[in-house]
Automatic annotation (TrEMBL):
<keyword id="KW-0862">Zinc</keyword>
<keyword id="KW-0863">Zinc-finger</keyword>
<dbReference type="InterPro" id="IPR000093">
    <property type="entry name" value="DNA_Rcmb_RecR"/>
</dbReference>
<keyword id="KW-0227">DNA damage</keyword>
<dbReference type="GO" id="GO:0006281">
    <property type="term" value="P:DNA repair"/>
</dbReference>
<comment type="similarity">
    <text>Belongs to the RecR family.</text>
</comment>
<dbReference type="InterPro" id="IPR023627">
    <property type="entry name" value="Rcmb_RecR"/>
</dbReference>
<dbReference type="GO" id="GO:0003677">
    <property type="term" value="F:DNA binding"/>
</dbReference>
<comment type="function">
    <text>May play a role in DNA repair. It seems to be involved in an RecBC-independent recombinational process of DNA repair. It may act with RecF and RecO.</text>
</comment>
<dbReference type="InterPro" id="IPR034137">
    <property type="entry name" value="TOPRIM_RecR"/>
</dbReference>
<feature type="domain" description="Toprim">
    <location>
        <begin position="55"/>
        <end position="150"/>
    </location>
</feature>
<dbReference type="Pfam" id="PF21175">
    <property type="entry name" value="RecR_C"/>
</dbReference>
<dbReference type="GO" id="GO:0006310">
    <property type="term" value="P:DNA recombination"/>
</dbReference>
<keyword id="KW-0234">DNA repair</keyword>
<keyword id="KW-0479">Metal-binding</keyword>
<dbReference type="Pfam" id="PF13662">
    <property type="entry name" value="Toprim_4"/>
</dbReference>
<keyword id="KW-0233">DNA recombination</keyword>
Length: 174
């Protein structure tokens, strides 16, 4: 990209540079959920949308997961990005994640259910277990994403944990 800009239209390179600088100055993480937004729209539109159910909060590891979930069009609550996961190996403890702001939101916003939409690796499972204990002790219903077969996949390619999760999360065929 650098070579193309250096050999190409210098005005385009300047406009791109200005746009990147403006983005750096204007784009921030939403103070509530962590999703990218602008300084003038903080909290973000996902947090201020009156059509969203404030009793339902989906906890994700990073803001990219919010984007992926929004693309499905099926979740109508609010979000909270932890900005990571617990990891003894990298020294990430509860204090490095956005857990305190999560607890504050739950208390202030009347959240009744927290959907844990975390990855399924060991560190994410540890994070999910930690959050479950923390939230259930406060009377919050904790749910998680079902595990199962990806659309268009074959059983022969599934790992045992995914297949076991699919069997446990089976549902009535209607």
């Amino acid at each position: 990209m650098t070579l193309a800009l250096a050999q190409g239209d210098r005005a385009l390179a300047r406009r791109l540079s200005q746009a990147l600088q403006q983005m750096d100055e204007e784009v921030v993480s939403c103070a509530r959920c962590g999703h990218p937004t602008t300084r003038s729209q903080d909290p973000c539109t996902l947090c201020t949308d009156p059509e969203r159910d404030p009793r339902l909060l989906c906890v994700v590891e990073d803001p990219g997961d919010i984007v992926r979930l929004e693309r499905t069009g099926v979740f109508h609550g609010r979000y909270h990005a932890l900005m990571g996961k617990l990891s003894a190996g990298s020294g990430t403890g509860p204090g490095q994640l956005r857990i305190e702001p999560l607890l504050k939101r739950i208390a202030e916003e009347g959240v009744e259910e927290v959907l844990l939409a975390l990855d399924t690796d060991t560190e994410s499972e540890t994070t999910a277990g930690y959050l479950r204990e923390l939230l259930e002790s406060r009377g919050i219903t904790v749910t998680r994403l079902a595990r199962g077969l990806p659309s268009g996949s074959a059983i022969e390619y599934l790992d045992p944990d995914t297949l076991a999760g699919a069997v446990r999360a089976r549902e009535r065929f209607e």
